[in-house]
UniProtKB/TrEMBL annotation:
Protein name: Ribbon-helix-helix protein CopG domain-containing protein
Origin organism lineage: Bacteria, Pseudomonadati, Nitrospirota, Nitrospiria, Nitrospirales
Length: 59
């Protein structure tokens, strides 16, 4: 069964250095847990999805 691919739009954001480090650390943790490569962008997308879900918005 093929996974559905969402269309991604390139964007830029400014983040504190500590946030960037946390994204890199989290990506490595998720790689160890799942056995799949995680990018910082993927971690951001998961975090934003959780944020919006908690606010009652399904995206």
């Amino acid at each position: 069964m093929a996974e559905e691919q969402e269309k991604l739009v390139k964007t830029s954001v400014y983040l504190e250095e500590e946030v960037l480090e946390a994204l890199e650390e989290t990506a490595l943790e998720l790689e160890k847990e799942t056995g799949r490569r995680w990018s910082k962008g993927a971690v951001i997308r998961v975090a934003l999805s959780d944020f919006f879900t908690r606010r009652g918005r399904m995206i």
